[in-house]
Amino acid sequence: MNTDKIYAESIANQYAPKDTSKVVALRKLDRKAKQPSEIFAYTFGILSTLVLGTGMCLSMGVIGGSGIAAFAAGIILGVAGILGVSFNYPLYKKIRNAGMKKYAGDIMLLAKEITGNDQ
């Protein structure tokens, strides 16, 4: 087996124009189905982590003084942040499955055209 030839072909395939290819359309549909869930997961995860960190800082007296009110607010914010971080992955999966279900028909049709399967 000529590995240099295989390597050269794989490099050439990366640079070949693929604007009208069905594979590119399939990739775009796949990205369109999955991207909203990823954006949500990153955004919600970051915000939940910031809420958790703020709650920790308040409860330890790093910010807001060392009073009982700051401690109580820190505990509440910390628990809210923990809940947000805990529910992030199940929410991500639910949103991702909904997006994949929404585009499943188009993706399956295009995949069948590419592979030539009529099943």
Describe, in plain words, how this protein is organized in 3D.
The protein is an all-alpha fold. The protein contains 3 helices and no strands. 6% of the residues are buried.
Specify Rg, calculated over alpha carbons: 24 Å
Distance between the termini: 34 Å
Rough outline: elongated
**Class computed from helices, strands and strand pairing:** mainly alpha
Helix content: over 70%
Question: What is the N-to-C order of secondary-structure elements (H for helix, E for strand)?
Answer: HHH
Counting DSSP H or I runs of 4 or more residues, the number of helices is 3
Low-pLDDT runs of 5+ residues are none
Number of strands: 0
Which strand-content bin applies to the residues? under 5%
Q: What is the averaged pLDDT score?
A: 88
Main beta sheet: none
Q: What's the SSE blueprint?
A:
Elements: H1 3-15, H2 22-60, H3 68-115
Helix pairs in contact: 2-3
Descriptive labels:
mainly alpha, elongated
TL;DR of this structure?
The protein is built from three helices and no strands. It is mostly helical and 119 residues long. It starts with a helix and ends with a helix.
